[in-house]
Amino acid sequence: MIVPTMNETEIKKEIVADFKNAIKKSEYFDNDFRRKVLKAKSYPTFSCFNYTSPLKNKWLILFEARSKKEFGKKSRVVFVSYVQTTERINAFQFAYNCVSPHIL
Q: Rounded distance, CA 81 to CA 69, Å?
């Protein structure tokens, strides 16, 4: 679980460890998004799903499709983990390049 007292390195380790859970859940949400894409009358179309992982991290899983063909492996998916405190909300976007994961 990400807590406000964690430093940057600890947050990165926590998000990288929990990312596999978010990926699995996004595959489940993809079925709902697929139906929305096929029924949409205008594009782009978006969907946002909230997910609390087994590690108690909160995730936003954002889907985007710019045409009827963009669902499943072709859809654009953004993963954002966030922590809400009394003062603010801290959001961390997971990004992966060919070499290593990055947290934005």
A: 28
How far is it, in rounded angstroms, from Cα 69 to Cα 104?
Answer: 29
Q: Is 40 left (phi over 0), alpha (psi -120 to 50) or beta?
A: beta
| Tokens at 9, concatenated | 């390195």
Q: What does each of the 104 residues of the chain score in pLDDT, given as a tens digit?
A: 998 888 889 988 999 999 999 999 999 999 899 999 999 999 999 999 999 999 999 999 999 999 998 877 788 999 999 998 888 899 999 887 767 788 88
Cis peptide before 44 (omega within 30 of 0): yes
Instruction: State pTM to two decimals.
Output: 0.86
The label of the residue with tokens 């953004």 reads 78
